[in-house]
Amino acid sequence: MIFGNDIKAEGMILLSSNFIYFPNLLSLSIIGSNVGVEGFKIFNDNIKNIPLLRYLNLSYNIIKDSEIEQIKFNSIPHLESLILRENQITTKGMLHLCDELSSFCPALRILDLYDNLIEDDGITFLSKKVDRLKFIELLDFWNCGITDKGVNVFCDMIIKGSLSELDSLNFKNNQIGGVIL
Q: pTM to 2 decimals?
């Protein structure tokens, strides 16, 4: 785990260019490391070298939609847990995440988007792809700009029998029911 080490782009380039020596890596956490756009680009170019990856945590790195759109999820088909807390992912990034994860990561169990601005449309995108993500156990949408509209879409997913494995859901600090939960 690399946590708060401020490795910047240079550190990410050094780290990810050596992924080739760790093809059996199962877990990778690069948290609050200020990797930047260039570092993230090199990371994405090299993620193919760790195809068995199951757990990926890229929280607190100021990752934007443009970086999310670069992740080659087809290179990590065994991914079970994706943690992207407190980045700058919006509805646009959520659309890409839903498309990619539902196409290439069918074993995904945990999706943590805590404190990103995915809004109601992000929940709508998820609802259109959720049938391919049958094993989701945890969804975290804390402070994601979701309103009653997004919650209603989510409830429709539950009523239709989607997300039957879900056992943990966080909608705290969103504008739901006229109050912030």
A: 0.94
Cα–Cα distance for residue pair 86/79, rounded to 1 Å: 20
Question: Token pair 């990797």 is at which residue?
Answer: 35
Q: What is the pLDDT of residue 35?
A: 86
pLDDT tens by residue, 17-67: 999 999 999 999 999 998 888 888 999 999 999 999 999 999 999 899 999
Q: How far, in Å, CA of 131 to CA of 126, rounded? A: 9
Taking alpha carbons only, the member of 50, 39, 44 closest to residue 11 is: 39
Q: How far lies 180's CA from each of 66, 110, 141, 171, in Å?
A: 29, 24, 13, 10
Contact between 34 and 62 under an 8 Å Cβ cutoff? The reply is yes
Rounded CA separation 48/71 (Å): 10
70 neighbors 99 (Cβ within 8 angstroms): no
The token duo for 9 is 């782009």
How many CB atoms sit inside 10 A of residue 6's CB? 10
pLDDT at 179 over 70: no
Provide CB contacts within 8 A for 126, sequence distance 6+.
94, 98, 157
Give the integer Cα–Cα distance in Å for 139 and 181. Answer: 16
| Planar angle of CA 137, 139, 144, nearest 5 degrees | 175
